[in-house]
Amino acid sequence: MDFKGVQTLIGLMADTMRGSKEAAETFAELIKRPTNYEELVAWIRRFVPMGGNPLRPELLGQQIEDTARVLGFVPRSRYVDLLEQNEILKNKLADAEKTITRLQAMVGTAGNEGAAKKLLDGLTATVDNTLRIQADLVRSIADAFKKPSAEEVKKAEQEKAARQKEKDEAAG
Predict the structure, then answer these.
(1) CA angle, corner 165, sides to 163 and 170, nearest 5?
(2) What is the DSSP string of the chain?
(3) How far is residue 152's CA from residue 97's CA, in Å, rounded to a whole number?
(4) Domain ranges in the chain?
(5) By CB neighbour count within 10 A (0-12 exposed, 13-18 middle, 19+ buried), where does 8 fall?
(6) Global pTM?
(7) CA distance 51 to 44
(8) Cα angle 131, 137, 143; round to 5
């Protein structure tokens, strides 16, 4: 990079700020955008710091890039590369935010282990109690529809006969 060109540019800006009409006109020409090749060549000959080197086609691209960089411009290829990197970084950021949210949710539940265990123990006791009650109910229903054994039938008939005998004696 030719720093004489930068010094010249800064000197031109300083002269323009001091009110020099010639510097202001030169600065206005400097920021004017060439519209064809001849204007570009004339603009380059006037403003691109060459260090005494004649304008050579093989150096033209580099000289234009150097001048643009001094003026604060970025080549389009660099701009496109930066846009792509920006998209990649946005995607990484979104993924990181999702991970952070997921981890925060996990930490939120991890901090309440005591309460979670107490709740789980309560639910387990409730489920066990419900299963015990259901088993008792099924057992009682099965007992109600179960065919009595011969012994149970004989005992029930004896009890019935004894009650009938007591009734008859009381009536008689």
Answers:
(1) 95
(2) --HHHHHHHHHHHHHHHHT-HHHHHHHHHHHSPP-SHHHHHHHHHHHS--TTPPP-HHHHHHHHHHHHHHHT---HHHHHHHHHHHHHHHHHHHHHHHHHHHHHHHHHHHTTHHHHHHHHHHHHHHHHHHHHHHHHHHHHHHHHHSPPPHHHHHHHHHHHHHHHHHHHHHH-
(3) 74
(4) 3-73, 80-111, 133-171
(5) middle
(6) 0.31
(7) 13
(8) 135
Tokens 């003026």 label which residue?
71
Tokens 């990649």 locate to 88
Q: Which amino acid is at 7?
A: Q
Token pair listed for 142: 């099965």
**C-beta separation of 55 from 38 below 8 A:** no
The single residue listed with the structure tokens 């997921």 is 102
Asked whether 29 and 94 are in contact (CB, 8 A), the reply is no
Decide if 43 contacts 34 (C-beta within 8 A): yes
Residue-by-residue pLDDT tens, the chain, 172 positions: 556 767 777 887 787 788 888 877 777 776 777 777 677 777 767 766 554 455 566 666 777 777 777 777 777 787 888 888 888 988 888 888 888 888 777 766 666 677 767 877 787 888 888 888 888 877 777 666 666 777 877 888 899 899 888 888 887 6
User: How far is the C-alpha of 114 from the C-alpha of 111, rounded, in Å?
Assistant: 8
